[in-house]
Amino acid sequence: MNQSAVTTFPVTDEVGRALEVSLRGVDELLPRQEWVQKLARSQATGQPLRIKLGLDPTAPDIHLGHTVVLNKMRQLQDLGHQVIFLIGDFTTLIGDPSGRNSTRPPLTAEQIKVNAETYYTQAAKVLDPARTEIRYNSEWSDALGARGMIELSAKYTVARMMERNDFHQRFTDGSSISLHEFLYPLLQGYDSVALRSDLELGGTDQKFNLLMGRHLQQEYGQEPQCVLTMPLLVGLDGVDKMSKSKNNYIGITEDANTMFAKVLSISDALMWDWYTLLSFKSLAEIAALKKEVEAGRNPKDAKVMLAKEITARFHSAAAADAAEQDFNNRSKGGIPDEIPELSLSGAPLGIGALLKQAGLAPSTSEANRLIDGGGVRVDGGVVSDKGLRLGAGTYVVQVGKRKFARVALG
Questions:
Q1: Looking at the domain that runs over 3-230, which CATH code has it been given?
Q2: C-beta separation of 407 from 394 below 8 A
Q3: How confident is residue 124, by pLDDT bands cut at 50, 70 and 90?
Q4: pLDDT higher than 70, residue 103
Q5: CA–CA–CA angle 387, 391, 395 (5° rounding)
Q6: Among the listed residues 89, 24, 37, 17, the one whose alpha carbon sits nearest the alpha carbon of residue 277
Q7: Nearest alpha-carbon partner for 33 in 64, 53, 8, 69
Q8: pLDDT of 132
Q9: Closest Cα to residue 128, out of 234, 280, 342?
Q10: Crossing angle, helix 283-294 and helix 299-314, to 10 degrees?
Q11: What would be the CATH architecture of the domain defined by 341-409?
Q12: How large is the average pLDDT for residues 28-43?
């Protein structure tokens, strides 16, 4: 056992504060006492800890759910530690089986390359690029070769692998499990060996893979990493985890107005979880704000503050201010300063056809449904007649609170 594993370092107040930052919003930190000693050693020696986050570029865009672990990385980065943003270009060829009930079709190398090119650009909106080490796991995984892969596979048993909930469930259900899927947690664990990681972060669904890294480091004679899991962010619907497939997400590349409005749409109860996981405010500031709301302050004030903070992070403070003004304007029935302008022919034109041609409704039947629901306005007036025909002229057409178009009809 190496000396650092047996030496006990003093736990100072500064180490205690670093532990508090580490624990903010986490689901689990394992083993906690080992992490305390790593922090204490870092303070005593001046040697930053190596903190790893791996993301597979399975899609080109990152949403707010992904930024929960990125936020934690930034917090630890601000404590002076070395963060490693690992792009899993090799492991994406396999496909992470975590939480899957079937074999995931692997992406092509070309698809992975395209996705990876945008990943770090987006992550850099949260992390400090000047203090972030960017790595690709093909760097050492390609070099393993057949012999290295066999040697790596010998360091874990099939019985232990089948303890994974998803593998166990699929086996019980008679669903297929491909042999290459067993390689995924082994290769993710080997990343920790290659990088000599002190701490690895991930969502709660990654716990097995993160612990694999700890196991393999011990197999290779290294000090084992600690493991930190973050909760999965609940999406806009307040029910399921944020996901593009559930359409309850906010993409970090969405325009400022849309981002601001979507944050304001979450429930008052969900807002406080989002504050803990997404805001850079201190826990003391959040607790004080929550106390003000409980004492009678309008919860919308707190939600606006959160919406502006998130929008400013991915755009700018000026864009967040403009988004707030745009939202207020829309909520009062006003017309935004900038709306799409287009020209249509065929006057007089039925309102349903106009909505479809203007891109405000996917079909005439959907346009009629919107009219029945009172969701269509022309020049500020609610349209109730589905048979309305508009003559030549220019009209401001509105669907719902957020869709507008200035239509020149000829």
A1: 3.40.50.620
A2: yes
A3: confident
A4: no
A5: 95
A6: 24
A7: 8
A8: 93
A9: 280
A10: 150
A11: Roll (3.10)
A12: 96
Residues placed in the known binding site = 244
Residue 1 in this model has a pLDDT that exceeds 80: no
Query: How many C-beta neighbours within 10 Å does residue 283 have?
Result: 15
- Residue span(s) of the chain under CATH 3.10.290.10 come to 341-409
- Give the mean pLDDT of 105-116: 78
Calpha distance 199→203 (Å, rounded): 14
pLDDT over threshold 80, residue 142: yes
E strand or H helix that includes residue 30? strand 28-30
Tell me the average pLDDT of the chain: 87
Are 128 and 74 in contact, with CB atoms under 8 Å apart?
yes
Distance CA 295, CA 306 (A): 19
Residue 4: its pLDDT value, please? 46
Q: Are 249 and 238 in contact (CB under 8 A)?
A: no
CB-based contact 43:12 (threshold 8 Å): yes
User: Residues spanned by CATH 3.40.50.620 within the chain?
Assistant: 3-230
**Cα-trace Rg, the chain:** 26
β pairing state of 226-230 and 199-203: parallel
Alpha carbons 387 and 349: distance in angstroms, whole number: 10
Output the pLDDT for position 28. 95
pLDDT in tens, 54-73: 988 777 678 999 899 999 99
Give me the pLDDT at residue 3, please. Answer: 45
Q: How many CA atoms lie within 13 A of 311 on its CB side?
A: 25
Instruction: Enter the pTM of the model.
Output: 0.73
Binding residues for ATP: 244
Q: Which residues contact 89 (CB under 8 A, 6 or more apart)?
A: 57, 112, 113, 116, 136, 137, 138
CA triplet 205, 208, 209: central angle to 5 degrees?
A: 90
| Angstrom distance (rounded) from CA 176 to CA 190 | 25
In the numeric block, the tokens 């975590």 are attached to 98
What letter represents residue 113's amino acid?
K
Whether the Cβ atoms of residue 202 and residue 230 lie closer than 8 Å to each other: yes
d(CA 86, CA 22): 20
Structure-token pair, residue 342: 């287009």
